[in-house]
Amino acid sequence: MTYTQTTDPDTADDTERVLRLLAPDGSRVHDPILEPWAAKLPADVLRGMYRDMVLTRRIDTEGVALQRQGQLGLWAPCQGQEAVQIGTAHAMNADDFAFGSYRELGVIVSRGARAADFVLSWRGEEHSAYNPYDLNVATPQIIIGAQTLHAVGYAMGIQRDGTDQAAVAYFGDGATSQGDANEALVFAASFEAPVVFVCSNNQWAISEPVSLQSKFPLAGRAPGFGIPSMRVDGNDVLACFAAMKWALERARSGAGPSYIEAVTYRMGPHTTSDDPTRYRTRDEVDLWRSRDPLTRFETFLRAEDVIDAGFVSEVNDQADALAREVREATLGAPRRAPIGVFDHVYDEPHSGLDEQRAWFASYLDGFDEQEQQR
Fold first, then answer.
1. Which of these, 130, 131, 129, 133, lies nearest to 96 by C-alpha position?
2. Which of 114, 122, 298, 305 is buried deepest, with most CB atoms within 10 A?
3. What's the CA angle centered on 222, arms 264 and 266, to 5 degrees?
4. Predicted local confidence at residue 227, as pLDDT
5. Phi/psi at 22 (nearest 5 deg)?
6. Is 252 noted as a catalytic residue in this protein?
């Protein structure tokens, strides 16, 4: 059968089916594939996912503001993608290990990151703002798709340790065009590694639409490697939770890797250095704004009497308080000496790094000599 890629989950035909449990208006819908994995979720689980979605959006807003004010060097907004990140992260066990890109803010929110953990790397003061083993989340990867290989390698280690952990690789639609992501799929399939691939298809790899990268749904690639896949509405947090439960069960039972394509949308720029108005239309953005994942989930929870106005107000207060802590952590960050960029790069001494440090030290000394000659 021949079919083409679509960017719209509401107009996809049967060959491109996008699974969901929440319609864009927040009403609950039934899906026989997803239903067993998200049936009868406790109210505290639902409230926890809502809380983390609100926190993620508020921190994201603060991060953009801090960058615009010159306090951060860069920021990669994730507005619109909260359901993918929070839904999948809440399905994981505490000892599962996540490997993400620079946009998985919600994953570290759900893992209990501190205020400074969100900003110090973007400020350029630390290589990694947190210890990966404190959160069981690897340092965010800037190189597109590289984390997929890291996740598979970790998963193969899990096999040798004989535990029931799983590794999770988060990446965007743009990464599917990279060799690393495809090599990771080969290794994962060949060794039946307990790893889940979560592709956040946000429609745009910087300025290139997903329809240019792939003429077929991205979830259709994985079966070619021998990996079962699922295509879900990435703006539906319940669907993302359910798909992740399905994939993690396969990983823990020894069935090997799984692939989830979450069809979502990046509401903001690729990073704060990008101008998305140059390559996409206002009508497109407005269409996706009407499918907002946070509004959708809140509407559902209110209809089910899981949350009320008091709870929403309480969560918003928590989000504002955390945003203030993030700002304070940014403005109060200690400035390290320029030579400090070479600290903590490797655990043990490295001759190549020593040479680079010596060269950079000499370069910095040159500025001192110029000042003395003035």
1. 133
2. 122
3. 15
4. 98
5. -125, 125
6. no
**Band (125; pLDDT cuts 50, 70, 90):** confident
CA dihedral 272, 278, 284, 286 (to 10 degrees): 50
Going by C-alpha positions, the residue among 236, 296, 286 that lies closest to residue 264 is 236
Over the stretch 262-285, which tens digit does the pLDDT of each residue have? 999 999 999 999 999 999 999 999
> Can you list the alpha helix ranges (DSSP code H) found in 124-145?
132-135
| Euclidean distance between CA atoms 170 and 253, whole angstroms | 21
Residue 127 annotated to the active site: no
- Annotated catalytic residue, options 279, 324, 336, 350: 279
Specify whether 344 is catalytic.
no
Question: What's the token pair of residue 229?
Answer: 């896949």
Q: Choose, from 20, 123, 150, 270, the residue flagged as catalytic.
A: 270
pLDDT band at 1 (very low <50, low <70, confident <90, very high): very low
CA distance 91 to 314: 24
Query: pTM of the entire structure?
Result: 0.92
Helices 82-91, 43-68: axis angle to 10 degrees equals 130
Q: What integer pLDDT is reported at residue 128 of this predicted model?
A: 86
